[in-house]
């Protein structure tokens, strides 16, 4: 069921708009989340106390089709728009902010993958999410990096026959070892600026040269399993390299506001 939300933007808002704005959201998807969240709330304290990943939450999200919420329907997902996506975050954030954050980073990485992947890559990878129930981890952050004016990354892709060798250490890799797919960034070896160097790739968790360093212990967010991931000469096939310089523009999809609002509302 699709519901409509309408409001009037006040005049003099500085946006040059005063007309009625109509948005639609998928009420059925949001209701699916509401049916799951009471159980999430019951587990919340124990999960953080024992510093464990809430596998039950993500299995139930998967069984409800919500791991594929942001994948277009023609590719096997639910086709959630931005408003639906944010309302799902709002509901998750009310009861378990760490699950909201993790689901958000998976959904963000899935959307970035979709924006950057070619047809063949989508056909090969998306069924693992929409049909196979796998999750993405955002394996992009590094100490000292910044998106404000210049991306700087120490992880490097070195060209070899058939692809690249990737080396570097990533931090705050939400979902980490509990995801099957790593959305990863780095610089092409010997290059110095983002404009000429940034590369993105999908890496299988079970690839050789991938190590999990269990260092994450943030109170209230222990359930995100945001440990460090180290790439040590990991082989990345050329067919797993995504849209290169387009990565920076695609980061505009990231929005974690709603899980904070949900946490506040709780």
CATH class of the largest domain: Mainly Alpha
Structural class: alpha+beta
CATH architecture assignment of the largest domain: Orthogonal Bundle
Q: What's the CATH topology label of the largest domain? A: Butyryl-Coa Dehydrogenase, subunit A, domain 1
State the separation between the terminal residues, measured CA to CA: 26 Å
Biggest β-sheet, characterized?
7 strands, mixed
Share in helix: 25-40%
The rounded Rg comes to 19 Å
Number of domains: 2
Q: Beta-strand percentage? A: 15-25%
Structural description of this entry:
It is globular and about 50 Å long. The chain contains eight helices and nine strands. Strands 3, 4, 5, 6, 7, 8 and 9 form a seven-stranded mixed sheet that branches. A two-stranded antiparallel ribbon has the order 1-2. The protein has two domains: 147 residues, Butyryl-Coa Dehydrogenase, subunit A, domain 1; 113 residues, Butyryl-CoA Dehydrogenase, subunit A, domain 2, CATH 2.40.110.
What does the secondary structure layout of this molecule look like, with pairings?
Elements: E1 2-8, E2 20-26, H1 27-49, H2 55-63, H3 82-95, H4 97-116, H5 119-130, E3 136-139, E4 156-160, E5 163-170, E6 181-188, H6 194-197, E7 198-204, E8 210-213, E9 228-237, H7 247-250, H8 257-265
Helix pairs in contact: 1-3, 3-4, 3-8
For the structure shown, list the relevant keywords:
single chain; 266 residues; Butyryl-Coa Dehydrogenase, subunit A, domain 1; Butyryl-CoA Dehydrogenase, subunit A, domain 2; 2 domains; seven-stranded mixed beta sheet; two-stranded antiparallel ribbon; 8 helices; 9 strands
């Amino acid at each position: 069921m699709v519901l409509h939300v309408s409001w009037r933007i006040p005049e003099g808002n500085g946006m040059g708009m005063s007309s009625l704005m109509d948005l639609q959201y998928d009420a059925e998807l949001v209701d699916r989340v509401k049916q799951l969240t009471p159980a999430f709330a019951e587990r919340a304290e124990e999960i953080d106390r024992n510093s464990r990943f809430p596998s039950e939450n993500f299995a139930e999200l998967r069984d409800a089709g919500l791991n594929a919420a942001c994948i277009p329907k023609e590719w096997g997902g639910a086709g959630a728009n931005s408003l639906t996506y944010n309302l799902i975050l709002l509901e998750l954030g009310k009861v378990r902010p760490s699950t909201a954050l993790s689901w958000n980073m998976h959904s963000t990485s899935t959307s970035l993958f979709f924006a950057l992947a070619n047809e063949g890559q989508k056909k090969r990878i998306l069924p693992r999410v929409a049909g196979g129930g796998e999750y993405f981890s955002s394996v992009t952050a590094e100490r000292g990096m910044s998106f404000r004016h210049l991306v700087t990354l120490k992880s490097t892709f070195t060209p070899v026959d058939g692809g690249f060798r990737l080396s570097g250490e990533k931090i705050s890799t939400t979902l980490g070892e509990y995801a099957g797919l790593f959305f990863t960034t780095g610089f092409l070896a010997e290059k110095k600026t983002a404009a000429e160097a940034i590369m993105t790739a999908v890496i299988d968790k079970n690839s050789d040269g991938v190590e999990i360093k269990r260092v994450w212990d943030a109170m209230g967010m222990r359930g995100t399993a945001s440990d460090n991931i180290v790439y040590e000469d990991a082989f990345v096939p050329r067919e797993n390299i995504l849209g290169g310089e387009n990565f920076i523009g695609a980061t505009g999809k990231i929005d974690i506001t709603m899980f904070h609002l949900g946490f506040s509302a709780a």
